[in-house]
Write a structure and sequence with these properties.
- It is a single chain.
- By secondary structure, this protein is mainly α.
- The protein has one domain.
- It has three helices and no strands.
- The two termini are about 15 Å apart.
């Protein structure tokens, strides 16, 4: 399954490269009681989503419901989702 990208214009978001995306993802603290390994995996998947977005490619994995913070990570700092939310299992 492939998840479609949101159609944002590049000038409307502040994250323009993978390094900035990584900084954004790492700005989120690990939720209380969340396993460190699971948190590392969550951040890795979020970075994969950003890599697809910045490369202009649909995300080629399915996303089952994850921790709510994950969905903040795959939004821009301006609050715009980078994937079409209706395509993500567990959101709707």
């Amino acid at each position: 399954m492939s998840i479609a990208l949101n159609t944002l214009s590049p000038s409307s978001i502040s994250i323009k490269d993978l390094a900035s995306a990584n900084l954004w993802i790492n700005s989120f603290p690990r939720p209380m009681g969340f396993n460190p390994y699971a948190w590392h995996t969550t951040k890795r998947i979020a970075l994969e989503v950003w890599k697809s977005f910045l490369g202009g490619k649909n995300f080629d994995r399915s996303l089952n419901y994850m921790h709510p913070t994950f969905y903040l990570m795959i939004k821009t700092p301006e609050g715009q989702p980078i994937l079409r939310e209706k395509c993500i299992r567990g959101i709707c």
